[in-house]
Design goal:
InterPro entries: AAA+_ATPase, ABC_transporter-like_ATP-bd, ABC_transporter-like_CS, ABC_transpr_MalK/UgpC-like, Mo/tungstate-bd_C_term_dom, P-loop_NTPase, Transp-assoc_OB_typ2. By secondary structure, the chain is α+β, with helices and mostly antiparallel strands. It has nine helices and 22 strands. Strand 19 and strand 20 form a beta hairpin. Helix 2 runs parallel beside helix 5. The site of magnesium ion has 2 residues, from helix 1.
């Protein structure tokens, strides 16, 4: 049975007009699982966490933790936060500035009537877990950002809660520290085995930490799956965009073959098993790494759908080049949206180190690397796994 179960969770904030921030949300999280809620700012992640913690009362729905109902709108059950065995770690470390590190870490034990655990050494033990033992007698102002966040981690874990909620805890750290605290957190979870809900808007954080990911859009969940499934088979165009498939190519099949945003298409057809929706159009989503380029007149690789492009700009990235291209129509004019390309400089991509603005290039991608969607952002039957829906009427 799942440890966290939320059904039909809805939160409407009063006001004129009232705003529904979460809308019929459902979550099933296994015991010991590390679930990542991934979504852009404002989609309702914090509100969802606050509802789980009991800091916010949902307008409708039901929440149970470890088999016990802690919230049920219909039956007027609403257990207070301190009766839910939950630890919380916030983005703004939220340490008490006037208290020592020791007192900060001990705080949840006091608040929950577990003072005897302080004598049993839980504070020191937890501080040791996050490498903060030497800092126990300092005050938060005497710590670096990374140290403060480790203390906040210790405070979230000290009472050995069954469920720990993390609200973007790494966002305020600089890039290098973020990686090291992230690795810490991964290790701690493996060691302690708590159930976690971790909120972030950062896809690489989500992929690295999550046993499963829930991708949120405007108060609802678009996809709930393993990182690998989400990365390789995003369920909607929204999810595809969110996990790095930044390129959107609109294909159309006419009497004399495929076009892409008005530009002619050569090589492999983008969708071999052609099953276009009623619009007769197909959207391909592609990562910059999966768009390949070659000098004009050459072919970037075998089995590719081929287009012609022109370089708008390119930037050096150490081991790769990031370039922005525009496609060219039959007359050589710019066609459609820009295309983002990442070319590794080792191997055959080496020539791209000398890309110049205005240079013409051959562009290609393997259809298997793309995800295809109908015009409305839903999976298309042209995707390699057949999409999530029955095939629309074939064209
Ligand atoms: N107390 C509140 N009253 C009214 N609107 C709120 C309140 N709290 C959050 N919101 C709104 O709910 C939406 C979702 O907020 P939030 O859950 O903080 O999103 P996220 O954490 O994903 O950025 C936002 O549009 C925000 O303005
Ligand atoms: Mg938030």
């Amino acid at each position: 049975m799942s440890y966290v179960s939320a059904e039909g969770l809805t939160k409407t904030f009063k006001g004129r007009p009232p705003v529904t921030v979460i809308d019929g949300l459902g979550l099933e999280i296994e015991e010991g699982e590390f679930l990542v809620l991934l979504g852009p700012s404002g989609c309702g992640k914090t509100t969802t966490l606050r509802c789980l913690a009991g800091l916010e009362s949902p307008t409708a729905g039901r929440i149970s933790l470890g088999g016990r109902t802690v919230f049920d709108a219909a039956n007027r059950i609403n257990r207070p936060p301190d009766k839910r065995s939950i630890g919380m770690v916030f983005q703004s470390y939220a340490l008490w500035p006037h208290m020592s590190v020791r007192a900060n870490i001990a705080y949840p034990l006091k608040a929950r009537g577990l003072k005897d655990k302080i004598k049993e050494g839980w504070v020191e033990e937890t501080a040791r877990l996050v490498d903060c033992e030497a800092l126990l007698d300092r005050h938060p102002a005497q710590l670096s950002g990374g140290q403060q966040q480790r203390v906040a981690l210790a405070r979230g874990l000290v009472a050995r809660p069954d469920l720990v909620l993390f609200d973007e805890p790494l966002s305020n750290l600089d890039a290098r520290l973020r990686d090291s605290v992230r690795a810490y957190l991964h290790e701690l979870h493996a060691k302690l085995g708590f159930t976690a809900v971790f909120v972030t808007h950062d896809q690489s954080e989500a992929l690295a930490l999550g046993d499963r990911l829930a991708i949120m859009r405007a108060g609802e969940i678009d996809q709930f799956d393993t990182p690998r499934q989400v990365f390789e088979k995003p369920a909607t165009e929204y999810v595809a965009d969110f996990v790095g498939m930044a390129n959107r190519l609109l294909f159309e099949r006419g009497a004399d073959g495929w076009t892409c945003q008005g530009a002619p298409v050569a090589g492999a057809p983008p969708a071999a098993r052609c099953s276009l929706g009623a619009s007769g159009r197909l959207v391909a989503r592609l990562r910059p790494e999966d768009v390949h380029i070659a000098p004009a007149g050459e072919v970037p690789g075998d089995g590719m759908t081929l287009l012609k492009g022109r370089v708008l700009e390119s930037g050096y990235g150490g081991r790769h080049i990031d370039a922005t291209l525009t496609l060219e129509d039959r007359d050589g004019a710019a066609a459609g949206d820009r295309l983002h390309v990442r070319v590794p400089l080792a191997g055959p991509g080496g020539w791209a180190g000398e890309l110049a603005a205005g240079q013409k290039v051959a562009v290609g991608f393997r259809p298997a690397d793309a995800r295809f969607f109908d015009d409305d952002g839903e999976p298309s039957a042209a995707s390699s796994d057949g999409g999530a829906r029955p095939a629309p009427v074939g064209a």
